[in-house]
Amino acid sequence: MAYDTRPLLTLKEKAAFIQEAQEKDYILFFEHDPQNECCDLKMTEKGVRPNNFFKLSEIV
User: How far apart are alpha carbons 10 and 13 in whole angstroms?
Assistant: First the structure.
């Protein structure tokens, strides 16, 4: 169990990382999600959103 002792900083850092991930075409890997292993991101009118979900084995 962990506690976020600086949640406002965490939100700011997460927003910056998500923006960078979308701009640089990162593949995000969700090691604890049983249904969605990976995804890439796209920019929409509502901001950065998931684009395609896929398995890690599809890209390795």
Answer: 5
